[in-house]
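Example record

The entry below shows one chain as it appears in the dataset: sequence first, then structure tokens.
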Amino acid sequence: MRLLFEIGMEENPARFLVNALNSLKSNLEKKLKEERIKYKEIKTYGTPRRLVISVEDLAEKQEDLDVLNMGPAKRVAFDEAGEISRAGMGFAKSQGVNPKDLEIVETKKGEYIAVRKFSKGIETKKILPKLLKNLVCELEFPKSMKWADKNFRFARPIQWFLAICDKELVEFEIEGIKSSLESRGHRFFGDRFTVSTVDEYFTKIRENNVIIDIEERKSMIKDMIEKNCTSEDEQVLIHENLLNEVANLVEYPYPIVGTFNKEFLEVPQEVLIISMEVHQRYFPILDKNGKLLPKFVVVRNGIENSEKVKLGNEKVLSARLADARFFYQEDLKKPLENNIEKLKTVVFQKDLGTIYSKMERVSQIADLLIEKLGYEADKENIKRTIALCKADLVSNMINEKEFTELQGFMGADYALKNGEKETVAKGIEEHYFPRFKGDELPITKEGIVTGMCDRLDTLVGCLGVGIAVTGSKDPFALRRAALAIVNVILNSKLNISLKELVEKSIEVLDAAEVLKKDKQELEKEVLEFLKQRVINVFTDLGYRRDVISAVVKKSWDNVVDAEERIKVITEEMQDVKFKNIVSIIKRVGNIVKSHKDTQVREELFKEKIETELYNFVNGLSISLENKLQDKDYAGYLEVVLSGEEIINEYFDNVMVNDKNEEIKTNRLSQLKKIDIIFKEMAELNLIEA
């Protein structure tokens, strides 16, 4: 059988569509599984006016249910007198049966009580009405509404249900809205229509100018733009996020080229592009060199060109760009530096004070980072960057909430026009990098230091005043801040201790008298938070989890150093000798798991190999210590690998658990010393085969 179900409604917000279809599909899959109804494939389709789901090869009836549910052992379920016990009664109650209906089943482990349940599968068509009704009622949206006299809530008012299984109507009703075999085409270029089969629906919906497949609409937009909207020396800027949104705003896309006054091009093109993309959902048109042209593409919800639509969109965009030009010109009338004082009125967080006080703390944290990284020659520029980096937040362009996406960029532009150094301007823009996963990272010293110290103050400060980060709640984007810190360190190869930076940040916040937590507890919490982000970043980089765990458990504070250890281990793992030595390390670790002492007495040696191993380990210890100090991790592992033969020989000739307790303890101490020095670089015993 084939099932097709369509929920028709008023225009749904574009951002709701994909999640709604995914929820619809996953919920239907769950319900069919619970009802024991098999199927081949479920597909979803959607437009602003409809959510559509189809099922191929739907079973005509449920599978029969024939199961044997096992309970406790008979000796537990019944007492010595043969009366049912509390455990037996509880099992019967949980299964919804009379204790008399319990069976005794013989198993390999003995006799157990059980309940046999059998029910014959019923026709799928009898189940579908209630199933589809529940599918609608259980669908949730970020925001929902009531309408007319109905108590039912949905994203937008529902207008119709089309529900057909093979050639039959699936009848159900929700608050007066009855399912039918009728659907509706495009609001302006289609009609109502009735279907008698699933195939007929797909034919008629297209005839009525509705493209129900989201991916097809996206392809149409790109193809039509390429064919009809540009000349040879032009290109349309199509960001995937905007394409997804526009495709979910229309039922039949038709791109139209519009123009605007070229005088607006005196404003930085990033501002104009933001106006077009974010505020109007237009695609900007650029020349081949990436320079913005006074043209754009608007995607109409229609099947043909319309001069009226073109002129209307041009008029709206001109008003937007006029606002942008006004804000920009007003901002340039005063130096960016004048905005610093205004930051005293902008609250960052109620317990952590204003943006102004935050940047004062950032400047103090930066002193340590500048010293540790050897950036003293650039200190003046870095400090200037910190002073100006948030000044654009109170500019007309950003403060009016129209162009918040351009924070940092506008500050950099204003700084350059005010005569600030180019590296300072670049640092102002870069201190926000990365803004999202996969975004570019800062490359200037000004951007690196300012961004790291800004995020560190946010992270430590928010955790320090009790702001909790949960699975769904992270109001100050602390996870993103921590990930950015780690990524910047790795990208710029910064030889820095995160612990030292956290300690400095806590010291500065404590001096400002804003902390609400014990300093030691806060340090522990922040470092654990950062540690998890370090693990996440290494995992995203493709390193094995067991190798990451082995290194991080030993040393992660210097992230660059930790990655170097991971790289070396990853490379050495290909060597058979490495696998052998890991096995030995695990064996040694298991033997001395509860032993603590490392003091070895030579006079207690009974076998020649004990002395040989003792001398080898002493020489090994010095060699490994030197390798670690020099950060020669490949050399460290090479030395460790050299111990395979002699340790194996030791195990072949020596019984560690000697009857003499003194000798046994001495041998355990010798192995404990090996266990410790072999794990100085990483907990190699955590590496899996």
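Notes for this example: The domain at 338-542 is CATH 1.10.3210 (Hypothetical protein af1432). The two ends are 49 Å apart (CA to CA).
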